[in-house]
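The instructor's notes for this session suggest beginning with a concrete chain rather than abstract definitions. Hand out the sequence below and ask the class to guess, before any prediction is shown, which regions might be ordered.
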Amino acid sequence: MMTNHTPPLIELRNVSVARSGRVVLHDLNLRIEAGEHVAIMGPNGSGKSTLIKTITREFYPLQDEGSSMKLFGQETWDVSELRSLLGIMTNDLAAFYLRPITGRDAVLSGFFSSVGLWRHQKIKPEMREKTDELLAWLEIEHLARRVIAEMSSGEVRRVMIARALVHEPKALLFDEPSNSLDVVAQIELRRTMSKLAQSGIALLLITHHLPDVVPEIERVIFMRDGRIVGDGSKPELLTADRLGSLFGCPVHVTTQDGYYHLVS
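After discussion, reveal the predicted structure:
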């Protein structure tokens, strides 16, 4: 009898990565299953951003014997095809402020991987329908006609989430999503992340903000000095001792409604 095997989202074996001639990721071994919700945590300089850029094919591993890297079961990818399966949420949004782009056009531009829309692009009726469905599902229809430059940081993040969803990716990668957001925007963002996780999309979260680890995320990975130094469940890793060791300072951890909070 044949079994249906779904390849893992990410599979790294003895992966090292160099930047500017210096090795910054050291022999990483990491497997994240399809549909799994995972948070990767660590202090600044721990290698989190380099890992993200390696997963998104901005950086490539060193060609060492015995090392390999697979995404969705494949070692080689056309980056444009990969982006349709792996939505990427970063805070590098400067290009969207250079000209007046509405929320709806920003989402529509996700179909073309462009910054806003251009005259040569042909927008199909089903693209408009999908865009309006996503704006409604994320409860941001009121941002459809508003220009990006006139939105709050939190509103822009939610529009960019809708943009990342147009191709119905299997996973969303969030890189420090709550940076520069006020308290209300952080709460809205985390509510959206929970909604995404509950919909079946895998979440891969990179953060050093403990409350970003929404209740649906069950697995946590610790990074320090370019190495994985912890991998386990939230109750196992999100303790005062483990977090204090990771960040190098005494901390106190509290929990409420499935969220963890760090107090120094």
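Then share the key points. The first helix runs from residue 48 to 55. DSSP finds eight helices and eleven strands in the chain.
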